[in-house]
Design a protein that fits this description.
The chain contains 14 helices and 14 strands. By secondary structure, it is α+β, with helices and mostly antiparallel strands. The longest helix is centred in the first third of the chain and has 22 residues. The mean pLDDT is 95.
């Protein structure tokens, strides 16, 4: 069988429509998601027992591929998948096949269609009636203003893909499929992906004058905000419901594990039986809070009633089961699936709660970074005499693609253009003297088409931004070569002194020649956040406001050979009495105010 035929079979399998399979129910009408996993039941990726079963199927696929390498083995994998998919909820098999494709060398030859192709029914907009903008931004219903962000196809695909690449069970070892491997620093990535998502969501809320996300830490109080995704196979959540348990797992069981995790974060100690374990790094706490195979609970990590349980994952399940009291469909809410969970405002409230656990430990037990040992480089704060005004670095320049002569040409050399325009005789020229530089970036709402299986096409609102590039000027203060890492972050001016609100925009390595006054051209389209972390390119910039919204860009230069925690330097508190703005005392740090305008 040819590779093109294998591709066609893979696409057909992954794009197969899944029927709305309900969850098991007790005779009294309670949802019973903890029933023994079966292909006849709905697949819940956040349930450890379900995930273990699906990943075991991925291991079976790997065994088949190992037995007959090449296209013959891939055909055997697809034969097995097509047989299995007939036995119940296809999502079991589709998830297992995607894990195989992501983690097996032969599997990587097979395609995974984007979410809007393999599950178009999951990306259609809810089109809920919008609350008038003159309404109170803090009242229930105002969350509708952010539907465009939460329901964004790229955002939901990003989260869905993350859970395939990083299954909590670990992924099968391609050489020994019966073994499970957990990625290095997986807990750190789990924390950072969601921390950055919360920072971006809160920044979008600020654009509408809305308050920051409130953590869902009180399991007894009613949840005022309802949500109806209007998606087939998912039940709405009416407003006014309080979190509740399901069969065999009470809400008090969940609250007990919440309290144990907060106690661990505050004390710095996790307990393994009667043995206290000092929390040495974020990984231990994040793995346990999620939980995954690296949890301090060891082999009991998948037991809902284990010492620390599966707090994050079962939170998704409990909130997904929070349907109307008269609902007997057995269908869960969108929080049940990584491909739809972020559509619900509760996703962000839940993750703020989980992030608060980790932040409690970071704020209490991590010493401040020693930032004075940065590379000997200079990013200037000001070109004039006297006291430099804050956040006006002349060495952080932004240029729209459309304002750069010849940028549309296929042989355009951005680095050469930047050196000729901003370096040499122009090294001491300020940004306003350059016609191609700007102090304002632009976003807009576009209409993205979604084609449904019946051939209809729906237009979906999507936030986009005008293409732009960074031009950075950095001076090497040493008469020898330096290899450095350039880190670019941004925060809304209103949040600039809150370390959890700084958003990573890019990170890349660069080599500075001896004593060089370097001009660095960097297209925003090459962002490491997009290319390495999978963040949607069209959501790189926050929305901003029609009248303009003030943001602060920060450039920090660090040694290229330093292996730093994601989010450096905002993963730790600063020394007592020091502000984030005080980082400007360092020669390798500079900031510049930039406006982001949302245009009609």
């Amino acid at each position: 069988m040819s590779l093109s035929e294998l591709h066609a079979r893979t696409r057909a399998l992954l794009c197969r429509e899944s029927p709305p399979v309900p969850l098991p129910m007790t005779p009294r009408g309670e949802l019973a998601p903890f029933e023994p996993p079966s292909s006849a039941h709905r697949f819940l990726p956040f349930l450890p027992a379900h995930l273990q079963r699906a990943v075991s199927l991925a291991a079976r696929f790997m065994e088949l591929a190992n037995a007959r390498p090449g296209e013959e083995g891939l055909a055997a994998v697809l034969d097995e998948a097509e047989q299995r998919i007939q036995r119940g909820d296809p999502e079991w098999v589709k998830y297992a096949l995607r894990v195989f494709i992501a983690h097996h060398p032969e599997g990587r030859h097979l395609p995974v269609p984007p979410l809007h192709e393999r599950a178009p029914h999951l990306v259609v907009p809810s089109l809920r009636p919008e609350l008038p903008r003159r309404g109170n931004p803090g009242t229930p219903g105002a969350e509708i203003w952010l539907d465009y962000f939460r329901e964004d196809t790229g955002l939901n695909e990003h989260l869905d893909t993350w859970h395939v690449q990083h299954p909590a069970t670990g992924y099968p070892d391609p050489t020994r499929p019966e073994q499970r491997l957990l990625q290095d620093r997986r807990g750190e990535l789990f924390w950072y992906v969601h921390q950055q998502l919360l920072a971006r969501y809160d920044t979008e809320r600020l654009a509408f004058g809305m308050p920051r996300v409130e953590p869902l830490q009180d399991y007894a109080s009613p949840i005022n905000e309802g949500y109806d995704a209007r998606l087939p196979g998912f039940a709405p959540r009416p407003p006014g419901l309080s979190p509740r348990g399901v069969a065999d797992y009470d809400i008090a069981d969940h609250a007990m594990r919440r309290d144990r995790l907060f106690t661990a974060a505050s004390s710095g100690l996790l307990w393994q039986g009667s043995t206290p374990l000092f929390i040495e790094d974020l990984e231990q706490l994040a793995d346990t809070a999620e939980s995954n195979m690296g949890s301090v609970d060891g082999e009991a990590w998948a037991d809902p009633l284990g010492p620390y349980g599966s707090h994050h994952n079962l939170g998704h399940v409990l909130l997904a089961c929070l349907t109307g009291p008269r609902d007997r469909s057995g269908l869960p809410g969108v929080m049940a699936s990584p491909a739809t969970a972020a559509r619900d405002p509760l996703f962000f409230r839940w993750h703020r709660h989980v992030d608060d656990i980790i932040d409690t430990w970071q704020s209490t037990h991590l010493p401040p970074h020693e930032l004075s040992d940065g590379p000997q480089v200079l990013v200037r704060k000001w070109l004039g005499d006297g006291v430099a005004p804050l956040h006006q670095s002349p060495d952080i320049l932004l240029c729209f693609d459309q304002d750069i002569p010849g940028a549309a040409s296929p042989d355009f050399d951005g680095q050469r253009w930047s050196e000729e325009t901003f370096g040499g005789d122009y090294w001491t020229s300020p940004p306003p003297s350059f016609r191609s530089s700007t102090h304002t970036l632009r976003t807009r709402m576009a209409q993205h088409p979604v084609r449904l299986p019946d051939g209809r096409e729906i237009l979906k609102p999507r936030l986009e931004h005008d293409a732009f590039h960074y031009v950075l000027r950095v001076e090497n203060l040493l008469p020898r070569e330096q290899k450095v890492t350039v880190r670019i972050h941004v925060a809304a001016d209103a949040f600039a002194e809150e370390r959890r609100m700084w958003m990573e925009m890019d990170r890349f390595d660069h080599t500075l020649r001896p004593s060089e006054q370097a001009v660095i051209f960097r297209p925003a389209s090459l962002s490491s956040v997009v290319r390495e972390r999978g963040w949607p390119a069209h959501l790189l910039l926050p929305r901003g406001r029609r009248e303009g919204m003030l943001f602060r860009f920060m450039v920090m230069i660090t040694p290229a050979d330093q292996e730093l925690v994601a989010g450096h330097p905002f993963d730790r508190p600063l020394p007592p009495g020091q502000r984030i703005a005080d980082l400007l005392a360092l020669p390798n740090v500079a900031t510049r105010n930039i406006w982001i305008t949302h245009v009609s």
